[in-house]
Amino acid sequence: MFPGWKFAPADTVIVNGLHGALLLAPRHPAGFGSATDWVSNLAGFEIELLRDGAVVDRGQAANVLDGPLSTLRQLVGLLARDPVNPPLATGDIVTTGTLTRAFPILPGESWSTTLHGIELGGRPVWFA
User: Fold this and answer.
1) Among candidates 23, 44, 47, which has minimal Cα distance to 114?
2) What is the pTM of this model?
3) 74 φ/ψ angles, rounded to the nearest 5 degrees
4) What is the DSSP track for 8-49?
5) pLDDT digits (tens, 9 = 90+) for 18-53
């Protein structure tokens, strides 16, 4: 669809995103009485993106409409006014956008993340 995987920002909107794959980490409790302050942590955490162990980019929660919760709040509000699309339901997965820039991936590389300010582990990925 996109020769050489070259596209404009509008193209990603038209095709509903930029995921080549989506990896999900284990669920974490986020309800009342949880030991983790998810509201504060999701609004202010930072991330390092590593390729073969070297940092290639850094990002922060605010890179996505002031944080993932703010982005989710925007989506819920839009869906509440949308006569065609249903509201979010239990079990729905919402991706709020990337906190770092996207980079080309080559065979044999390993990519991982290091998170600061939030109790989530990084996720390593290897490409054959």
Assistant:
1) 47
2) 0.71
3) -60, -45
4) -HHHHHHTT---S----PPP---STT-SS-HHHHHHH-EEEE
5) 566 677 777 776 665 555 677 778 888 999 999 999
Backbone φ, ψ for residue 82 (5° rounding): -90, 115
User: How far apart, in whole angstroms, are the C-alpha atoms of residue 113 and residue 49?
Assistant: 5
Mean pLDDT of 68-79: 88
Q: Return the structure tokens found at 111.
A: 């990519």
Which amino acid type is present at position 95? T
Residue 124, both tokens: 């390593």
Residue keyed to tokens 């065609």: 84
Tokens of 47: 């991330």
